[in-house]
Structure formats: structure tokens, C-alpha cells
Amino acid sequence: MDNEQKTSVGEARVRVRYAETDQMGVVYHSNYLIWFEVGRVELIRQMGLDYKRMEEKEGCGISVVDVHARYRVPARYDDELVIQTRLLAARGAVVKFGYRILRLTDSVLLCEGETMHVCVGPDMKKRSLPPKYAERFAAHLIS
């Protein structure tokens, strides 16, 4: 893996809490969407950007408009997970991220997915990414 790819895939870690599992001891499916967000925010941070600042100073948020998740193998209580996040597209007002969630101990792929976002202003109307963010996102796209 070359240096550009290393900087273009963000990694975050989480440990499965008991409250995130169902009666069978398996992680409840909606928690993966929360972990997608954890990965997305961490990737943006690893790019040298600040999502909170983008919202507060630039008046721009990225609203989720589409989510896809494929569940492969269940995660269970106390598993340590690695969330790998990459930027798939960023053009105008549309941003798309891809995710892979793996169990740390054996690197088994548990879930993979994508989210599509539309940039919006405080009025929830579509707008383009602020230039600083658009430039940095473009530099981190994986072809």
C-alpha cells in the first residue's frame, strides 16, 4: 500500500458494549450505522479537518441521504472492532463514504457499507462543500 492510500483510509477502533447487543449476544444491526459515523468523523479528522468546525464556522453539514450495509459475520459483546473508512466521491454537494468493519483479533470482515451525503446549510438547503473541504476531500479520493 503506497503512502497516498494509507492517508486515504481512516481507521477508528471501538469495543462492543453489552448494551449494543441483543438477547442472542449479537450486535444489534443499527449500531453499525453509529460506527459508520464514528469512522467518518475520524477520517475527516485524519485529513486534518474538523467536522464540528465545518458546521459551526462554515455553516455546512453533511446530511445522510442514503445508507447501505451488508452484514457478513456477527460482532459480539467485548469484541474490539476496526472501522476502516474511505472517501468514495466528493463533487459539488454530494459526498460518499465507504466502510469496512473488522474484528481486530482475526481481521474478519463483519460488515461493509456506504453512506451518501448532501451538503446543506443551516436552512437545510443543498449547498456545495466549502472550498477548503472540497479541496482536501478531492486530494483523498481513492481511485
General description of the model:
With 143 residues, this protein is an alpha+beta fold. It has 4 helices and 5 strands; from the N terminus they run H-E-H-H-E-E-E-E-H. A 5-stranded antiparallel β-sheet has the order 1-3-4-5-2. Strand 4 and strand 5 (109-120) form a beta hairpin. The chain is elongated, with a radius of gyration of 16 Å. The two termini are 13 Å apart. Mean pLDDT is 92; it is low at 1-7.
Please give a handful of descriptors for the protein shown:
single chain; 143 residues; alpha+beta; elongated; disordered N terminus
Order of helices and strands: HEHHEEEEH
Low-confidence stretches: 1-7
Calculate the terminal CA-CA distance, rounded to whole Å.
Answer: 13 Å
The major sheet is characterized as: 5 strands, antiparallel
Query: Structural class of the helix and strand makeup?
Result: alpha+beta
Q: Count of DSSP helices?
A: 4
